[in-house]
## 1
Amino acid sequence: MAKAEKYLMAAVLGWPVMHSRSPLLHNYWMEKYGLTGIYVPIAVKPEGIGPALKALHPLGFSGCNLTIPHKQNALPFLDEIDPVAKKIGAVSCVAVREDGSLLGINNDWYGFIENIVEAFPDWRADAGPIAVLGAGGGARAVVHGLAERGAKEIRLVNRSFERAQTIADEFGGPITPVRWEERANALAGCAMAVNATSQGMQGMDALDIDLGELPIEALAADIIYIPKETPFLAAARQRGNRTVNGLGMLLHQGRPAWKVWFGVDVEVTKELREKIEATL
């Protein structure tokens, strides 16, 4: 348990960052668990991530979350990278040790899986093929999580076929890279489709995909939570698919972060979800 005499601090580093609901999430837990501290958003340009990370220890931070565009470009500035994060090739959480060294962790895959299971307890990753759109840090975490849960076929679709191929080569297992022009056909026979791109995020163009080949019984998931329903999810819902947005992924990835930062086990409650949903 964290010491009461220490003012606890953590942050989210991103560019942009002010849209993030992470401060609302973590400051809710600060109050709920009776800790004295704060969680703040810090806007860090891509070229500034190294100095920003090195400043965490002198400033007294216990750690931070990383969001776009830092999940991959932070890797060279960390002293140690957790084996799972190393495999994924992206870091979503940094823990500051007492000696000032920095440990990189990836909690996104955990948050993604917990979000799906919370929404649909009977969900199984091995129920059929899964199409994942995107090949960035978020997509890498999603693919890892699905593989860990026993997915037998993951169709990885990306605008850059080479990036999708790289993930398939690095991860091994049931990953088949698919060219962007074949994205609509890649949905045929799928039990699940995941938007792991930034397309559909507030201020961004919608994901350009025809859902005609996606079976009605398939689950459509998005890692985006602003807006609460992306055009991709709206289109899926309107045709009869079950859907789940990325809010639960945000909520659940925070749990292991608190354990490593402050030694505290936290819960995702209905009250917490409603509190954050009200701001979306």
## 2
Amino acid sequence: MSNGAGQGGASASGSTQIPAEICIIGGGLAGSEAAWQAARRGVRVRLYEMKPQKFSPAHHSPLLAELVCSNSLRAAGTETAVGLLKEEMRRLGSLIMTAAEATRVPAGRSLAVDRGAFAAFITAKLEQEPRISILREEVEDFEPDRLTIIATGPLTSDALAAALGRLTGQEHLHFYDAIAPIVFADSLDLNKIFRASRYGAGHDYLNCPLDEAEYERFYRALMSARQVPLRDFEEPRYFEGCLPIEVMAARGYQTLLYGPMKPVGLTDPRTGKQPFAVVQLRAENREGTLYNLVGFQTKLAHPEQKRVFRLIPGLEQAEFARLGSIHRNTFIRSPGLLSPYLNFYRCPRLFLAGQISGVEGYVESAAMGLLAGLNAARLGRGEPLVTPPSATAMGALIHHLTNTAAKDFQPMNVNFGLFPPLEQRLAKKQRGAAYAARALKALDEWTDKLTERAA
């Protein structure tokens, strides 16, 4: 991928009419990160967020950067693709990563946060930044000639989605995302639950062990439970990485044993053996008063959730702080529409960031916000646009969004399958570290060149 000017950047370098102010629509992870990146490059930002005037079906807090589905930012180690992506963002001064480190909760080898403290941290930082003005109002359309970043996320309002549909000339695509329940810690029966992380990596998770009879009872109840029906015009296109548990279970009796209920790497201290199945609970806050049912996103009717999930040992008397739900996620088919700089080919001053651009996951969304904010600021300052090297995690995601050879584009989490192949053939356990070493070296060389050009 080129590190030089995009078709938007080339025209900007000779223009004096583009104002050094960016309009950012959406105050989620991507919009918040984009605003931070632009402001720290000396560009004024008008950040529009419709909450609390209007809430989407999945949002409840007026704070910016609200986490909806889970409080986990997934694996922490750089030998994983998402861990590597987080490290790249840290090296580029990510606000989201700073907030995550400041509000993290125990989660073994993963990075999880206290979601309330996380959103409050980011909101306060953006409110205190003098170059950022936060406007609490809904935006239903955009001006293609105004320097703008659309970062409205997968729950983009119907009006704005329709405006994007008119611009792209295609029907807006969608899949469905499901949310896992959260239970109160003091309602759990800790006599039946043991604390451990897989493979002895600490004691950050609560584990509910099931024997074979308990698993069969749970499975039968799950399969017969009433689900929330989709509306007539809705098509059930789920993201493979976030399937409702009942959808996974319908694929076969043992499917859950290789998914969210896998017992591998866990030993029940009461028996000294690996359980037949395990349900893991992850802390939702630093106080440890709330726990998330890991991998138990669901579209079961609310009364059915209580009935079925209370069949899990230790959850017989569980009280639910939040029940699971399902919502539509909107995204565009970005290859051929977006440039490697995250602006539209047809409208160079219009950028897209976050899950609506076609990435999946909190970290990936924030990373695209970082790059969109960086490039929108450069465009506003009359500087050439840039894109990270393809060997980096961010570059691999950009390639996914712009790969016109893709036949059936779908939202994607970062993974090493998106990266250019390693030059040397290595054992599977060594590949993650090799990808990371190559990526971070490429990133540092790229940022050094940007610094030299700015000097």
## 3
Amino acid sequence: MPQPPAATTSLRSLARQTWLLARNDLRQEMRDFELVATAGFFTLVVLVMFGLSFSTLGRYAQPMAVPGILWLAVAFVGSLTLTRIFDREREADTLRALLAAPVHRLAIYLAKAGVTLAVLLGCCAILVPGLVLMFDAAAPFAERPLATFSLVFLGCAAYATIGTLFAAGLSTSGGKNVLLSVILYPLTSPALMFALVSTRTLLDGHPGFEGYLSQLVALDILQLVVSAWLFESVLVGTAGGSSRRKRSAGRRT
């Protein structure tokens, strides 16, 4: 019987390891329910605050406000999620053990990005219907569900791909929450801007919506490739730096 090509075997192994790592993180999260509950509650608070603030806007001004509400909420929830995505490895000091295990570095990245994306999509499942209920201009979200899902998925994926890379780089740093927020928002601005403009074209019924969506796909692919290429060096450098600091502290004591 002919053996499958090495590339096919490697891809299957990568997919299996990614699924196992992501499933383990999701299972622990469903058991603790800490991140999901925090992100969900934060999403509701942001939605209500923005809804009360902009509820008096006229019909003509709402298409300018709704995209900003949606993607600002995603940015806030994403920042909250990414500050905690490597917390279990940091608190249990299992990052070095994970790197020593026979696991593809890319599988670690894809699993963490996948979990982040799942949390963001869950929050958008609250945000989008809430916006439809609060604003008449958000009706196209309900009228074009496939286009809305594609837009939300691609925008959240763009945020998760680049955010996971820098969350890994700061996973063992002191003051990582502040550092990640300072670094994250400028770097995710292009993705958020593309998503915001695409959302505006969807709400306006602009014929160029598919073109904006294709640009967002290209941005997702570019960020995924670059982040996957840099992830191993970022993660190994982070774990190595943490080990050296601990050894240095042990010698001083």
